[in-house]
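Page 37, continued from 36.
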């Protein structure tokens, strides 16, 4: 496009780099200040929620919490849910966590302050549970509600080759697919230049793919934004469809459609 400066190859966005440093410093301070695992976990969720709600398009919004299916099934606790902002929330707690409609969920993100074998297993275990709920809601008719799943770690306690071995042990000839982002690799995997992070995923569900990057947050944001907008485009839900979805959840009202039919002149 005329008038825009040409971006050099391997360009590291300084704004995203500053966001990375701020987020990592926040989490590192929380780890030092508290030994409570729940407190540390929430400290990992907060900076990424704030980051995403600042930078994502207005059609998307992010919360921690659960989602519910129309049948009342509830998901496990999800660190970050990226939601279609056109849908209302079912409830919101004092701590900001929410109960969302399954139909509004576009992406789920499992957040880890540090990444080891146990944390990788946690990511896959939760991905399996979310995938099971998806399968129950998608019996093969209509537009499937595909939810993109991601893992996000601030640091790793293991060398990258060990992380990759543990992550890729899972066969992925079927869903779920999980894209894993690491902001900072183990110190023994770092170079003398910009700090390195990494992205790990299954290409086409079968072939392991791994990339080391000096811009892990930029890559994460780019991938997340593209995937979310692509999913919204594939669903192609208009307001009529959304109204129908909402009707499946909001069953406690006194709208005439929810009451038995009454004959004319009966009131």
């Amino acid at each position: 496009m005329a008038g825009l400066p040409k971006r050099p190859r391997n360009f590291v966005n300084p704004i995203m780099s500053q966001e990375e440093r701020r987020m990592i410093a926040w989490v590192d301070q929380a780890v030092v200040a508290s030994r409570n695992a729940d407190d540390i976990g929430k400290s990992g969720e907060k900076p990424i929620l704030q980051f995403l709600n600042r930078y994502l398009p207005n059609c998307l919004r992010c919360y921690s919490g659960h989602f519910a299916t129309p049948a009342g099934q509830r998901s496990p606790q999800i660190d970050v849910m990226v939601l279609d902002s056109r849908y209302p929330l079912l409830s919101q707690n004092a701590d900001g966590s929410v109960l969302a409609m399954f139909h509004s969920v576009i992406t789920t993100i499992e957040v880890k302050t540090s990444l080891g074998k146990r944390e990788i297993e946690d990511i896959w275990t939760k991905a399996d549970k979310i995938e099971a709920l998806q399968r129950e809601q998608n019996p093969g008719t209509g537009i499937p509600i595909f939810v993109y799943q991601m893992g996000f770690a601030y640091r790793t306690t293991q060398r990258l080759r060990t992380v990759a071995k543990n992550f890729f042990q899972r066969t992925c000839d079927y869903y779920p697919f999980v894209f894993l982002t690491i902001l900072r690799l183990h110190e023994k995997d770092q170079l003398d230049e910009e700090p390195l992070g990494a992205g790990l995923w299954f290409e086409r569900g079968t072939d392991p793919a791994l990339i080391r990057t000096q811009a892990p947050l930029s890559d994460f944001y780019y991938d997340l934004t593209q995937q979310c907008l692509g999913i919204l485009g594939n669903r192609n839900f208009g307001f009529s469809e959304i109204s129908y979805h909402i009707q499946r959840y909001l069953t406690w009202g006194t709208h005439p459609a929810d009451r038995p039919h009454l004959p004319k002149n009966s009131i």
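The chain is about 35% helix and 25% strand. Flag for discussion at group meeting. The longest strand covers residues 105-115.
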